[in-house]
Amino acid sequence: MPIRVLIVDDHELLREGLKSLLSREEDMEVVGEAAGGREAVALCRSLRPDVVVLDARLPDVDGVEVCRQLQEEMPEVAVLMLTTFSDSDLVLGAVRAGARGYVVKDVLGMDLKRSIRAVARGEVAMDPKVVGYLMQQMRSPSADKEERIPLNRQQLAIIRLVAQGYTNREIAERMFLSEKTVKGYLAEAMRRMGVKNRVEAAMVASKNGWI
């Protein structure tokens, strides 16, 4: 089955360009497009796409808030944030809202398609420039530094590989574990850390000096 994609951006030319780019792929189908946040949420309710390519800056509702609404109502829908902005606060907000990926608009077409496929599989897709902003943000001094949460050696090793961009399958191969075991260790680590996804887990671990 093709990956069903909804494109959300207030610029018509960009939407048309993305639609043309993705429609050439045999494993992708653009099922709809929206120019604003409210329209995007309504379309998601009716169309139930696999991936939403979502602009972080929209004229009516902020893209981060749209992402949060989508994840609360339809957590099975993968959100890939697409924007010209690489502001660390915006990126951090998107990650905490549940976005599985974040890429900037100057991304090459091949990289965008790779990112869509990755988030559709449940993986994380972050632009390297964005990762730099996140790491800088999370390592900055903070008056309300997060409490240290103990993780065992296996969990720390897995979080370290997650931060380096490895998938569960690749981590399993490197650590001589089954993919199911890796998923279990990772789920327990995220539960102990109080985070919702892989990216936030890597950021919290980096901020606290665990990896």
Automatic annotation (TrEMBL):
Where 4-aspartylphosphate occurs, residue numbers? 55
For this UniProt record, the keywords arranged alphabetically read as follows:
DNA-binding, Phosphoprotein, Transcription, Transcription regulation
Question: What does this protein do, in the record's words?
Answer: May play the central regulatory role in sporulation. It may be an element of the effector pathway responsible for the activation of sporulation genes in response to nutritional stress. Spo0A may act in concert with spo0H (a sigma factor) to control the expression of some genes that are critical to the sporulation process.
UniProt key word S-adenosyl-L-methionine: no
What biological processes does GO assign it?
phosphorelay signal transduction system; regulation of DNA-templated transcription
What Pfam families does its record include?
Answer: GerE (PF00196), Response_reg (PF00072)
Which residue intervals define the domain Response regulatory in the entry? 4-120
Presence of keyword Plastid: no
Gene Ontology MF annotations: DNA binding
- Gene3D superfamilies for the chain: 3.40.50.2300
InterPro entries in the record? CheY-like_superfamily, NreC/VraR/RcsB-like_REC, Sig_transdc_resp-reg_C-effctor, Sig_transdc_resp-reg_receiver, Tscrpt_reg_LuxR_C, WalR-like
Outline the extent of the HTH luxR-type domain: 144-209
- Name the chain's protein: Stage 0 sporulation protein A homolog
Instruction: Supply the SUPFAM superfamilies for this chain.
Output: C-terminal effector domain of the bipartite response regulators, CheY-like
Matches recorded under PROSITE patterns:
HTH_LUXR_2, RESPONSE_REGULATORY
